[in-house]
Amino acid sequence: MTLTAVVTGGGTGIGRAIAAQLVSDGVSVVITGRRPDVLATTAAEIGAKYVTFDATDPAAVQAALDELPATVDILVNNAGANMARQGLAATAGDLAALKKLWLGDYESNVISTVLVTEALLPRLAENGRIISIGSIAGVRGSGSYGPAKAAIVTWNVELAKKLAGRATANVVAPGMTVETDFFNNTLSDERRDQLIKEIPSGKPGVPSDVAAAVSYLASPGARHVTGQVLHVNGGGHNGR
């Protein structure tokens, strides 16, 4: 029987790589996101289906349920953003802007993950897999983005207990990963080189590295792995 997966934020970067890997694994994949043109192109190129909605909007998530699979074997929560990298900034003393920045990161990373998961839990198959994408920033810190990713880890612990005996729930936490839009052209060559020097492996990750980790956690071989964080960062968890 063919398994079915939903990958949020599946149009580009890490999400696209994850979706493509799962398709290669023989899984029927539905990617989601807010940009229909991007989703349509990716879906056609990798052999997936797509559904357009904003994962931070409860009404949009609810409305999308009619288009999402009736049974979900694998849910990958990849949708999220670093609001500072997207141009949202807070200057010293501007408390209103600071609040907007922190709530923006919490909403885009945590709320999106919680809403989609809760909406699809009734459809989660026996022996299902929920895999959420965290970040090395969740343990090393990074403005308002790091705490948001750390919150996903804590939430996942509770989720794993809730699903015990029925399904697994894990987090994949990438380190520096190139070939994505994450840095939004804000990373200088000097800063890039410095970040790479801090990675014990001596090289940054690429989306396929993260996709391979997700593929493992989605496989039968990971049936006894739950409530965990799988770091994919070239040894950079604590830096050198």
From TrEMBL:
One of its GO terms (molecular function) is 3-oxoacyl-[acyl-carrier-protein] reductase (NADPH) activity. Its EC number is 1.1.1.100. This is 3-oxoacyl-[acyl-carrier protein] reductase. The lineage of its organism: Bacteria, Bacillati, Actinomycetota, Actinomycetes, Pseudonocardiales. InterPro entries: NAD(P)-bd_dom_sf, SDR_fam. Belongs to the short-chain dehydrogenases/reductases (SDR) family. Signal peptide: none annotated. Keywords: Oxidoreductase. It comes from the Bacteria.
